[in-house]
Design goal:
With 224 residues, the protein is an all-alpha fold. The protein has one domain. It contains eight helices and no strands. Helix 3 packs parallel to helix 8 and helix 5 packs antiparallel against helix 6. It starts with a helix and ends with a helix.
Amino acid sequence: MNVAQDISVFSLVSGATLPVQAVMLLLLVASLVSWWYIFIKVAVLNRAVDEAAAFENAFWNGGDLNKLYESVTTGRRSAQGMAAIFEAGFKEYAKLKRQGGMEVSDVMEGARRAMRAAYNREMDDLDSHLPFLASVGSVSPYIGLFGTVWGIMNSFRGLANVAQATLAQVAPGISEALIATAMGLFAAIPAVIAYNRFTANVDRLAVRYESFIEEFSNILQRKG
């Protein structure tokens, strides 16, 4: 019998007990979903940063706000990020100004509320999938540890009816148990790194959005 073949990763996984296999399958699914979300968030955040930079360039070039609003609203797709905040604020500002008979402070308060609502919607989109990554990063090691403890317990229970225990009898059970721990770490480490990186990027975008709201509010107030 080939010992190396008996303790290969595939043979250990296929020969593991049902609870340990369930733990491994759960961790594998969590890892695959995490990587899928990671790729999605990389694309979403990169696009958000590029769109914010492009809109800031267009906004601070000193052009007509009405023309900028028309270019935002007549685009091929709906405005996102900073452009969506601008669209909501300028639209509400123009609507309240057309009504007439309102104080400048009331007009500005309405525009600010509209921009804040758009800001919250954009932040909800940017924060999507981050709670899942945080959960995978914090829970996966414990799930893997559960599989390890179960596998070791099962391995030692199997020695109860053996007169003389040897390393060859204990090694496969312990090895399959440790695979569960390794899979837990494999799922958790990328999720934690990605979560921390994405959270920092989202926070930086939030600061840019909030700064734009304040600066645009000042511009509208002077215009009013």
